C-alpha cells in the first residue's frame, strides 16, 4: 500500500521525466548488453622464445549477432599502428577471406565459434610488442571495439627466474613442512599431555570410583546378600 502511495506521488510530481528516464536507462542497459566484445583471453600476455611459433588469441561476441563485421589485427610499432591483417565477416560461422600484410602470419581462427586468432610463425625480436584485435559491427552504428595482446620475445626462457622460483618454492615448502612438523609436534605433545592427564584423571576417577563402588557395592552387596540369605 505504501509503495503504491509513493508511486502515485512521484507520478504526480513528474510523470514525463521519470518515464523518459526509465526508458532511457532501459535502452542504455540493452545497448551495453548488445555491444560487440573483443576478447584476447584471461591472460593477455605471452612470453615466447625467438624462433618459436605463437598464437595471438582473439574472439568476438555480440548479443544482437553480427553482419559484415569488420575486424583487423594491428601491431603497435613504436607508436605507429601497422595493420597485420583485416577482413569482413559476412556472418557467424562463415570463414572469411583475410588479407594479410605481414610476413609469417596465418589466420587460424577461421571464424570457428567467433575465433579470429592468428598464428605468428618463427617469431623474431621485432615481433615483440602490442597487438590490437579490433572489431566493428555495422549493426551497432560502427562503434569501435578492441582488445590488446602483449607478446614478449625472449632469448631463452630465463633460468635464473626458474632457480629463483624453485628456491622460493622450496623455501615455502620448507616453511610449510616446518610449520606442519611443529603442528604435529605440538599436537603430539598435546596428545601425550592429554593422555597423561587422562590417565591421571582415570587414575583419580577409578581410584575414587573403586573406592566408592567398592564401598557402595560391598555395602549393598553386603546388605543385599544377607537379605536373601535372611529370606
Ligand atoms: C634467438 O636469438 C639469439 C640471439 O640473437 C640467437 O643466437 C638464437 O639463435 C636465436 N634463436 C632462434 C631459435 O632463432
Ligand atoms: C622502433 O624503435 C627502435 C628503438 O627505439 C628502433 O631501433 C626501430 O628502428 C624503431 N622502429 C621503427 C619502425 O621506427
Ligand atoms: C619457420 O622456420 C622453419 C624452420 O626454420 C621453416 O621450415 C618454415 O618454413 C618457417 N615458416 C615460415 C612461415 O616462415
Ligand atoms: C581459436 O583457434 C585456434 C586455432 O585453431 C585454437 O588454437 C584456439 O584454441 C581457438 N580459441 C578458442 C577460444 O576457441
Ligand atoms: C573507429 O575507428 C576508425 C578507424 O578504424 C576511426 O576512423 C573512427 O573514427 C573510430 N570511430 C569511433 C567512434 O571511435
UniProtKB/TrEMBL annotation:
Gene Ontology biological process terms, A to Z: cardiac muscle cell action potential involved in contraction; regulation of ventricular cardiac muscle cell membrane repolarization
Signal peptide from the UniProt entry: 1-35
Residues that span the membrane, as ranges: 164-185
Record's subcellular location: Membrane
Main location: membrane
Record-annotated Ig-like domain positions: 16-133
Alphabetical keyword list: Disulfide bond, Glycoprotein, Immunoglobulin domain, Ion channel, Ion transport, Membrane, Signal, Transmembrane, Transmembrane helix, Transport
Keyword Glycoprotein found: yes
Cellular component terms per the entry's GO annotation: voltage-gated sodium channel complex
GO molecular function, one term: transmembrane transporter binding
The keyword Ribonucleoprotein is assigned to this record: no
InterPro entries in the record: Ig-like_dom, Ig-like_dom_sf, Ig-like_fold, Ig_sub, Ig_V-set, Myelin_P0-rel
Membrane topology: Single-pass type I membrane protein
PANTHER family, sorted: MYELIN P0 RELATED (PTHR13869), SODIUM CHANNEL SUBUNIT BETA-4 (PTHR13869:SF14)
Protein name according to UniProt: Sodium channel, voltage-gated, type IV, beta b
Gene source species: Stegastes partitus
Phylogenetic lineage: Eukaryota, Metazoa, Chordata, Craniata, Vertebrata
